[in-house]
């Protein structure tokens, strides 16, 4: 075995910090706050409303077990062999049929969750300095991955009806370069829980098409409606200029890491090449488990079950807030998704509130993490799908206590 | 529903090609030849020696089934919930114990196969124009993903003992900028099947350390020895300046997509942030299945089984070549790995040979795909682990037939 001599040992120490010279990309990728919070939620006594975690007691474990057995018996070793980059063809066909009627399985690429879809599309589109449009606030995982590609962020305020169209028009006229895309979550957005009205969907799609700007529509929460289905998707309105991203993380199980991109065939070919270079293909077994479940009659039942359960949890959460905060938080009962977007008075700095809450054994996410540009600092994102009713009761009480101390 | 008016319909047609404007990165990522070949191997009558496919009849399916059942019963829903980015802690500990004695599980990051490890390290290191060192020939999946980051490739000839050290010295002295890393496969390389001698391992590690250049060591084939274990790994020789990449794709099953990076703790933190932004984390279930199997007593048995089986297949392949080609191909019997690197006389263009073989129902990979810079055009890569003995017999005969026609 090679033993470094004294001189070399010294070399190691002197040069170590310099041997590995990261790219500028590394320096500019921010750590994800929620991922960091996920690490502290195992602290004893900590109650967490931080992650966008589905309720894992509702996962159809027994069904997945049965599907695994049947699939392994039926498909054998092929389930564990290298496979096609584009992904499970039956699952792709199922996705088109359910979400993109009239389009073909050839327009779908399966990904390792929708986070990989975002990374892949960033790779595809973004040059350093490319202007990209996105909502204010927006999903922090998207902001994180976009940041690593160093775009020029243009934030458009997300109101209760959808993005501010006048602001969008202004941005489109004043941008020195045509934006590469508009990234948006039109359905029960993370974090705001707002959705686009039908009117906004139509005018936004038209406006972006006229300006030659593609839409990246993230549909992660679209199935999680508590009252009525949302209006038609942007992808159905304008399939020619919309790329749609979806995931089974919220409707089935995030640990399986199965998501997808739906894009016009012509560009999908290039996306597949990128995916090849990123990880060859996503795990075959996971796609098979998802397909086995969603293509069975049990999927609709399961969706009804989680909608009912999350609705009940959102109502309970709402009641707890009302009981503790009275009218001091302007909250509306949730219509879907996984989050309450708590708006505090301007004088409350939620970065500080968040820190103080952590000390009291309460994890949430400070609103500032969801903004590009100058952040608003008076929101907290509160997940209601994961905690039990009792935890929610205690959690809201803890929050109120900290809030009272600060105001 | 929104219906585009005539004017808009026209707009769609005129602008469609321009609406999606890919990055330069997209333009420069080459499609992977093997992935494309994988698509044609289902043609009736086609025999393939193209992919680096392990023999799937040897996959321990029944064991994986049992592990799945036990794990689901024991860990329940947590197996399907969001999980830590760094990956399964027991599996990380197992990897360190087996491959990196003396280091800690904190130095391991689990990835979706080793291809993702290569992408992640490219992200971490490469700026446009960064010089990087790699072997000539080298793994085409690595060349593909590196290419998308637009480095300046510096190829170092891989001889039967390892890289040409004098050439490496020359490259280090003449490079205008210090190379970001040296990427290498010291064990039964893909495609050449060469390995580094102990002497080369020691001098190469020392030379690169003295020049402040980190090593990315790809250990994909290290376990697949047919006679004796290979000398100490570069990572054991110089852990301070070596990042090691590994995978369970060749030793267990590639469809599970489980690989890893072993790197000094200090830089691993940054790698984890990149991984967060890429896909949050790799699938929990797959890591659990791998852990269940490799930590059991069955893993060693399984490794013995595949070593024996691949050795037998490599010997059979060798015999077929001898029988058909006699001395016209300078072949040595394989010592490990998955490939024969066939060297034809200079006047045979293997790009053309490859095409003619495809027409005869025989898939291989032309050698030119494995070179950065000016490719050598007289090699074919021949995988021996996947085909049956009968297929191998017919395959070699077909190859010889085409070869005879060309010479």
From TrEMBL, chains A, B:
Organism: Leptospira hartskeerlii
Keywords from the UniProt entry: Aminotransferase, Pyridoxal phosphate, Transferase
UniProt record similarity statement: Belongs to the class-I pyridoxal-phosphate-dependent aminotransferase family.
GO biological process assignments: alpha-amino acid metabolic process
Subunit structure comment from the entry: Homodimer.
Required cofactor(s): pyridoxal 5'-phosphate
GO molecular-function terms, A-Z: pyridoxal phosphate binding; transaminase activity
Domain Aminotransferase class I/classII large: 72-399
InterPro entries: Aminotransferase_I/II_large, Class-I_PLP-dep_aminotransf, PyrdxlP-dep_Trfase, PyrdxlP-dep_Trfase_major, PyrdxlP-dep_Trfase_small
Name of the featured protein: Transcriptional regulator
């Amino acid at each position: 075995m090679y033993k470094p001599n004294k001189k070399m040992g010294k070399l190691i120490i002197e040069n170590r910090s310099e041997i590995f010279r990261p790219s500028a990309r590394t320096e500019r990728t921010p750590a994800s706050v929620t991922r960091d919070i996920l690490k502290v939620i195992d602290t004893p006594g900590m109650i967490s409303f931080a992650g966008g975690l589905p309720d894992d007691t509702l996962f159809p474990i027994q069904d997945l077990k049965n599907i695994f057995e049947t699939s392994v018996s039926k498909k054998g070793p092929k389930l564990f062999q290298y496979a096609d980059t584009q992904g499970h063809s039956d699952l792709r066909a199922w996705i088109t049929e359910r979400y993109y009627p009239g389009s073909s399985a050839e327009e779908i690429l399966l990904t390792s969750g929708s986070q990989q879809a975002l990374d892949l599309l960033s790779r595809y589109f973004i040059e350093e300095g490319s202007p990209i449009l996105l909502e204010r606030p927006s999903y922090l995982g998207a902001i994180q991955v976009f940041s690593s590609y160093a775009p020029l962020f243009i934030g458009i305020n997300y109101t209760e009806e959808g993005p501010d169209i006048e602001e969008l028009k202004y941005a489109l006229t004043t941008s020195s370069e045509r934006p590469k895309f508009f990234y948006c979550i039109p359905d029960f957005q993370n974090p705001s829980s707002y959705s686009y009205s039908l009117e906004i969907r139509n005018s936004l799609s038209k406006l972006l098409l006229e300006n030659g700007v593609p839409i990246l529509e993230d549909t992660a929460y679209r199935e999680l409606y508590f009252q009525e289905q949302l209006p038609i998707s942007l992808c159905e309105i304008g399939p020619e200029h919309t790329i749609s991203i979806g995931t089974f993380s919220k409707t089935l199980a995030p640990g399986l890491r199965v998501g997808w991109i739906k894009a016009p065939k012509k560009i999908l070919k290039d996306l597949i090449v990128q995916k090849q270079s990123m990880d060859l293909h996503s795990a075959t077994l996971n796609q098979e488990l998802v397909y086995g479940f969603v293509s069975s009659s049990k999927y609709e039942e399961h969706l009804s079950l989680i909608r009912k359960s999350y609705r009940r949890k959102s109502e309970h959460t709402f009641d707890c807030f009302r009981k503790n905060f009275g009218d001091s938080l302007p909250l509306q009962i949730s219509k879907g998704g996984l989050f309450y977007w708590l708006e505090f008075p301007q004088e409350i700095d939620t970065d500080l509130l968040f820190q103080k809450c952590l000390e009291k054994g309460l994890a949430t996410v400070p609103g500032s993490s969801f903004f590009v540009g100058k952040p608003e600092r008076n929101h907290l994102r509160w997940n209601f799908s994961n905690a039990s009713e009792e935890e929610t009761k205690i959690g809201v009480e803890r929050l109120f206590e900290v809030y009272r101390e600060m105001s």
